[in-house]
Amino acid sequence: MRLIKNLLALIVLAVGALWSLQGIGLVGGSFMTGQSQWLYIGIVTALLGLGGLVWANRSRP
Question: Which of 2, 17, 28, 31 has the most Cβ atoms closer than 10 angstroms to its Cβ?
Fold first, then answer.
């Protein structure tokens, strides 16, 4: 189960990073390219992915 949580969190983190890069125009070929709102959406999504990684790997008593 821990592996699945980690994989899902990594996918969310990667999608957030991609959206951020598209938002600032470093990755082209999409309607999101150069749209600053996708930078912010990507940052929030990436932070959620990081939070998911922390949650999936926290120590349990």
Answer: 17
**Which tens digits make up the pLDDT trace of 11-59?**
999 999 999 999 999 998 889 898 999 999 999 999 999 999 999 999 7
| Residue 16 and residue 45 in contact, taking contact as beta carbons nearer than 8 Å | yes
At 11, the amino acid letter reads I
Which residues lie closer than 8 Å to 29 by C-beta, 6 or more apart? none
**Which DSSP string do the residues of 6-27 spell out, in sequence order?**
HHHHHHHHHHHHHHHHHHTTSS
d(CA 42, CA 10): 14
If you count them, how many residues does the chain have?
61
Q: 11: left (phi > 0), else alpha (psi -120 to 50), else beta?
A: alpha
